[in-house]
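Lab notes, practical 5.
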Amino acid sequence: TERAHAGAGSEQVVHAEADHDRMMNPPAPPTQNPPENPAEKKTVQAHECDHECGSIRLSDSQRKEFPVSAFIQDSADSLTKIMRAGLRSRADAMLDDQIAAIRYGSDVSAIRKAVLSIGMPEAKDYGTEIVQWAGDTAQGALDGTLAEWGKKRRGFKFADSTKTLPKEIRERLVAGALLSAGFQDSDLEKAVWFSFNEAFLALDDADATIATMTKSVDRYFEKTVIEVSAVTQSSNIVNNVRDDFFRSDEIFSEVESFVFMNPAPITEVCKSLVGTVFSKQEYEASRWLPPLHYSCKSYIAAQTLGDKTNKPLTSGGLSVTDPRLVKQANLS
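Output from the prediction step:
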């Protein structure tokens, strides 16, 4: 998976393998803290909400509501279908070839060598579908952000095809999508190969070995890793597009401050940040811009200059100091 902000593209691939390992066994969501004592609330309340997006009130120019978190989930649902269909068909093809090698192999050594040489079929069509999904998600994210901001496309136009996306954005989207597809191929190959190595001892136990290998593929698709990957990729793209939009000279000059938003945060680190109002200077340098963890659907909204409904900056700004919460932010 990729890190979400613009300018982080070179770091995304460097850390992708470590991030992927954590995604394969994501930590369980932390237990809920007891409700706060209202008497202990601060004067500037980070969690003060005015409408359904789970955030503070936005300016009139942003009133065409863009439900960002819901869009992230809807886009992730589409990607999940693509990944499940594309992975399953290719995993079954790999398994068929490996079973044939077991059935018709002449000796244990030849069978072992043949099975371990068979991997997932070429992912060209599958990768193309994922890249197209990435372009569609980016387009939808931009359209929603423009409507939220009250702007027309002008110089911010994206196209439905990634071939005409701005080069920097296109490269980030394609690299992230194909990197994820490669990780999934590797996971499936390793699952089947490990099960084969553990089960295959002699030619007369071929049926038991094949059953074990088949179960290893079935177990992969019973996991939530595909759904987790889909939400994380969707969140990366949506937050990248919004980040590119906000950092453009025309838009950044109209911003007074930013707000961390999420209608239903699933981790304590995001719960601690929802509603936080922070400065433009923090936005440019902060490590706490979403997504902060796998399956994160948090996002950033902007308050425009001169809007009387703007909320004041939150004391302490956009920061996390509790080591326990810092650990949860495994993508920051």
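Observations recorded by the TA: The beta strands are 255-261, 277-278, 299-304. DSSP finds twelve helices and three strands in the chain.
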